[in-house]
């Protein structure tokens, strides 16, 4: 009779420990974590955190990344799930919040809330656009993020496997924000169509391809950044 009772007590302790771990990591969701690679199984990376092993799926890894046992890994905690008597923790390096957390850890003004990250659009491994603003007019928010000779942004780019990052100055006016988001292209005019949720951007012929970007990437990321569908056209069109 003692054996079943003993097993019940063991199970209760296991599930109690699981629940406490679940609550602990649930509070850390979307936060920046660091760990060590213990093994790689068919592309899925197993990462040792403080008190459990998390998984970094292939779908949440930046393109062309290769990890080996012993490598240090930075990521965000994407999701936490209960799996039997264990807790399953999933990490991500492709989520837009990973870029946000890197900016917070590498740029003191963002960590101190002097500069705000207002919006992020990302195509992991290729390019990101980050819109920032600052209430203090004496501070150049874009320059502060870039750093002297690009020192601050360089560390973030290296962590993201040389992903290109455009830092955009945020403005509450779409007429100002949209041209900022489409940089480095130069825009002649912005026409708002609120009922359609669209913005028509007019530019010169020589700026059209630059505004659209390779495979439409620049205008696509700009649309995600401002939350409006952007159509780039020439005056004739």
Structural account:
This protein has 237 residues and is an alpha+beta fold. Helices cover 34% and strands 32% of the residues. It contains eight helices and eleven strands. α2 runs antiparallel to α5 (151-159) and α6 packs antiparallel against α8 (217-226). The radius of gyration is 23 Å and the shape is elongated.
Layout of strands and helices, then pairs:
Elements: H1 2-26, E1 32-41, E2 44-48, E3 53-56, E4 72-83, E5 86-92, H2 96-106, H3 108-111, E6 115-123, E7 127-134, H4 141-146, H5 151-159, E8 164-169, H6 174-181, E9 189-193, E10 198-202, H7 205-212, H8 217-226, E11 229-233
Parallel strand pairs: 7-8, 10-11
Antiparallel strand pairs: 1-2, 1-4, 2-3, 4-5, 6-7, 9-10
Distance between the termini: 85 Å
Give the strand order, joined by hyphens, for the main sheet. 3-2-1-4-5
Proportion of beta-strand residues: 25-35%
Which radius of gyration do the C-alpha atoms yield?
Answer: 23 Å
Shape: elongated
Class based on secondary structure composition and strand pairing: alpha+beta
Q: In this structure, how is the largest beta sheet organized?
A: 5 strands, antiparallel
How many helical stretches?
A: 8
Q: Report the average pLDDT across residues.
A: 89
Estimated helix fraction: 25-40%
Order of helices and strands: HEEEEEHHEEHHEHEEHHE
Uncertain residue segments: none
Count of strand segments: 11
